[in-house]
Amino acid sequence: MKKLLAAAAIGTAGIMPAQAEGIEIRANGSTPAAIGTAENFTGQAVISALYPPTEITRASTGLVNFAPGARTVWHSHPAGQLLIVTAGQGWVQEEGKDKRTINPGDVVWIPVGIKHWHGATDTSPMAHIALSYMQDGKNVDWLEPVSDEQYR
Ligand code: MN
User: Which residues contact 60 (CB under 8 A, 6 or more apart)?
Assistant: First the structure.
């Protein structure tokens, strides 16, 4: 019942009130994973929602598993994004700069409004936890796909 109320309270702003009812543990796998849509990802990306934004964290938190060759489309974040790489090896690229390699344990801060993409390398899968901060009810602005030429 509490969870239903919390879910209903997310509302149009996408922000859940910060509850003060004690420690909450969301067991691994308790939220369904989803395949990233072709509009937002090239190749296969599996997204597991971990925790919704609250009034305090203001970040939507999820785990993304990219197959080799998979990546986001170009996009930006209206309030920034923190990536924590947990497995494999990946690439991240900011528009106008060279792509950079990221490895498990690396922490990547994407500032507000920076056009970029992230994903696996062409030969390795990659997983990262993403904290995507909310601004006016959204946390991402999706743009055009990363071409194979840009990706390689
Ligand atoms: Mn991003």
Answer: 14, 49, 51, 52, 53, 131, 132, 134, 139
Is the pLDDT at 34 greater than 80? The verdict is yes
In the predicted model, what is the mean pLDDT of residues 120-146? 97
Say if pTM beats, i.e. exceeds, 0.90: no
Show the tokens assigned to 148: 């194979």
| Å from CA of 117 to ligand 1 middle | 6
Return the closest-CA partner of residue 95 out of 69, 79, 76, 81: 76
Quote the tokens at residue 129.
Answer: 């936890």
Calpha distance 90→103 (Å, rounded): 7
Distance CA 76, CA 108 (A): 14
When pLDDT is cut at 50, 70 and 90, the band that residue 15 belongs to is confident
Q: How far is CA 113 from CA 1, 55, 66, 89, 117, in A?
A: 38, 22, 23, 25, 12
Distance 68 CA to ligand 1 centre (A): 18
Ligand 1 mean position to 143 CA, how many Å? 11
16, 54 contact by CB (below 8 A): yes
Domains and CATH numbers, the chain: 2-18+28-151 (2.60.120.10)
